[in-house]
Amino acid sequence: MNMPKKLHTPKRFGLLLVGSLVLLVVCMLASLAFGSRTVGWDELLDGLFRPAVQSYEADIVRQRVVRTVFSFMCGAALGVSGALMQSVTRNPIADPSILGVNTGAALFVVVGIAFFNISTASDYIWFALAGALLTAAFVFGIGSLGRGGSTPLKLVLAGAATSAALSSLVMAIMIPRSNVMDQFRFWQVGSVGAGTMDSIMTFLPFFIGGIVIAILAAPSLNILALGEELATGLGVRIGTLKLIASFAGVILCGAATALAGPIGFIGLLAPHLVRLVIGADERYIIPMSALTGAILLTFADVAGRLLGSPGELEVGIVTAFVGAPILIALTMKVKVRGV
């Protein structure tokens, strides 16, 4: 029996984990310090640890704390969501945006704005989750039709076709309604700048629940990687495992998309980079994808502020600019099963 190779010792994984945490702290400090107004070290300490100090710079730091925490949570959620979807579909280029989940969430948010006058974080998150779940179920259902059941190629094609169709519906709803277009266009770009403490608290139960389910499912996902027939012989309930792992991935992606907009490529890049470094063990990939996704999104947010100064480039623009050529390179190099 060929179990997944343990390419790295726990000690090495620990070193990588510590290195990632250090890099994350650096990115978060940069997020607190840089923006339309750069603050110094003393002002940073005033904003973080000296509540008695009341100054313009200290207030800026305190406001950026919420944005930085929100960026960390969204990046971690998208990274884990991508890792789960790649594992379930056995497709190294699968992620929420490629499988159409982001677009499904966007459609339901537009419907909520246009017909139900939603405007709060809690409203956005329930509509987005409903859209993400229904779209994921539809894509997996379409991708499972025909001979051979679901294959990586069929799932990607089903996701691309579904995403195109839903995007058309989004435009059909928005164009006749200028008020919906005004409200939606800022959300559609993808940004962590609008994050508030209410957003964080609304996001928190979905974030914790999705991460916990992903970690608990990791050992079984390792067995699934050996092949469905062997996994079944070892006692893994394939359908149940895929359903649970997909559900965790969808609620993480849907909740993040509801509050920050459809930010692409983080769910693709984070787990792919992790696999290049630490191998194929999901017990390591899932926590490291969370850290890597948080690092990538926080760094992209800081880069957008610096590149767009004195304004800022939305983080969704930065991730798309960097992620699109990488996706093309991966598509050219990776042999997708079923091609």
UniProtKB/TrEMBL annotation:
Provide the protein's localization. Cell membrane
- Cited Pfam families: FecCD (PF01032)
The way this protein sits in the membrane is described as: Multi-pass membrane protein
The reply on keyword Endoplasmic reticulum is no
Instruction: Extract the InterPro entries matched here.
Output: ABC_BtuC-like, ABC_transptr_permease_BtuC
- Gene3D superfamilies associated with the record: ABC transporter involved in vitamin B12 uptake, BtuC (1.10.3470.10)
Q: Please state the protein's primary subcellular location.
A: membrane
Which Gene Ontology terms describe the biological processes this protein takes part in? siderophore-iron import into cell
Mention one GO molecular function.
transmembrane transporter activity
Entry keyword Transmembrane helix: yes
Residues spanning the membrane:
65-85, 97-118, 124-143, 155-175, 203-226, 247-272, 284-303, 315-334
Keywords (A to Z) from UniProt: Cell membrane, Membrane, Transmembrane, Transmembrane helix, Transport
The record's annotation in PANTHER family points to: FE(3+) DICITRATE TRANSPORT SYSTEM PERMEASE PROTEIN FECC-RELATED, FERRIC ENTEROBACTIN TRANSPORT SYSTEM PERMEASE PROTEIN
Q: Which family does it belong to?
A: Belongs to the binding-protein-dependent transport system permease family. FecCD subfamily.
* Name assigned to this protein: Iron ABC transporter
Q: Identify the species of origin.
A: Exiguobacterium chiriqhucha RW-2
Taxonomy, top ranks, is: Bacteria, Bacillati, Bacillota, Bacilli, Bacillales
